Amino acid sequence: MTEEQENELKGLGGWLILVGIGIVFSPVKIIISLYPLYSSIFSDGTWELLTTPGSEFYNALWLPILGAEIVLNAALVLGWLGIAWLFFSKKQAFRVWYIGILLFTIAFQFADAFAIAAVLPDEEVFDPETLMEIIRSLVYAAIWIPYVLISERVKATFVN
């Protein structure tokens, strides 16, 4: 590739615009989907019912599962904010971190589903909502991981 061709590809254009939109909206989506859930768990007494020994719904696994969910979801929000900084700063590390967060998200979704199944063995491990989220994450990763690995624009843009 000539220097002129490389300069034409350099920058946040083309398909990278869609990547950028996904990066900007990912932390917002996490917050919007989880805030109502977590706020109600803490405000309506659910937390106490699930985590207090002697309660009708107590299970020793609820505290570590819910605690891990909260911490890991907060880490995902911060991770996406860090990815956004790497993206808009055009840092070399963007590709590795972007691929990493996509793969981590999929692994987290599977682990969370199996953890919940350990506490609620009569429930489906992959209820329709969980299954849809996992499929969405798998399709997203199947499209964008190869793109960031192969794209000449990505290679020309993330050089700082």
UniProtKB/TrEMBL annotation:
Transmembrane segments annotated in the record for this chain: 12-38, 58-88, 95-119, 131-150
Protein keywords = Membrane, Transmembrane, Transmembrane helix
| InterPro entries, alphabetized | DUF2569 (IPR019690)
State the name under which the record lists this protein: DUF2569 domain-containing protein
**Organism field:** Shewanella corallii
